[in-house]
């Protein structure tokens, strides 16, 4: 099998069910999902510690789901049911809640970084946000399953929570944005 086909030499690429320009928003969307998947792979490669082993397993699961997501975004034929499921979103929400409880309380914005693994996860989070913006643009002109956007939105929140927990477990403090005021308060504290 050859890795090159020469079919894209004129600026077009094949999708499932058609061809489009390589600068099409659909191509941008699934290309950004591929980039996100790569950064998650980098982060997972840094997690060789027993205290982060279940996070590494979750990141692998997410990589598979992102491959499904890219496949959905590359499908213009609408011949098959979407591969992303609501249960994937629910899993992310459950893990976000658990990791938020585990990490120290958050009061100020934090700077991306800390440990190398956490820094990679923060980079992945920003790529997820970019993918989300591109998917919204795509949804403005084409029909995309709503779970796709929901999944990517929740994934960016999950990645934020995971980045903080990785630092916490590795005994690396998050670096707060020191010029900012306290912006996050416990809901009970606000209501008093």
UniProtKB/TrEMBL annotation:
One Pfam family per UniProt? Cob_adeno_trans
According to UniProt, this protein's pathway is: Cofactor biosynthesis; adenosylcobalamin biosynthesis; adenosylcobalamin from cob(II)yrinate a,c-diamide: step 2/7
Chain ranges passing through the membrane: none
Gene3D superfamilies found in the cross-reference section: Cobalamin adenosyltransferase-like
User: What SUPFAM superfamilies does this protein map onto?
Assistant: Cobalamin adenosyltransferase-like (SSF89028)
Q: Please give the catalytic activity noted in the UniProt record.
A: 2 cob(II)alamin + reduced [electron-transfer flavoprotein] + 2 ATP = 2 adenosylcob(III)alamin + 2 triphosphate + oxidized [electron-transfer flavoprotein] + 3 H(+); 2 cob(II)yrinate a,c diamide + reduced [electron-transfer flavoprotein] + 2 ATP = 2 adenosylcob(III)yrinate a,c-diamide + 2 triphosphate + oxidized [electron-transfer flavoprotein] + 3 H(+)
Q: Which InterPro entries does the annotation name?
A: CblAdoTrfase-like, CblAdoTrfase-like_sf, PduO-typ
Q: Boundaries of each Cobalamin adenosyltransferase-like domain copy?
A: 3-165
Keywords in alphabetical order = ATP-binding, Cobalamin biosynthesis, Nucleotide-binding, Transferase
Q: What is its EC number?
A: 2.5.1.17
Could you tell me the Gene Ontology terms of the biological process aspect for this record? cobalamin biosynthetic process
Any one GO MF term held by the record is: ATP binding
Q: Which family does it belong to?
A: Belongs to the Cob(I)alamin adenosyltransferase family.
The subunit structure is: Homotrimer.
Query: What name does the UniProt record give this protein?
Result: Corrinoid adenosyltransferase
**Which organism does this sequence originate in?**
Bacillus gobiensis
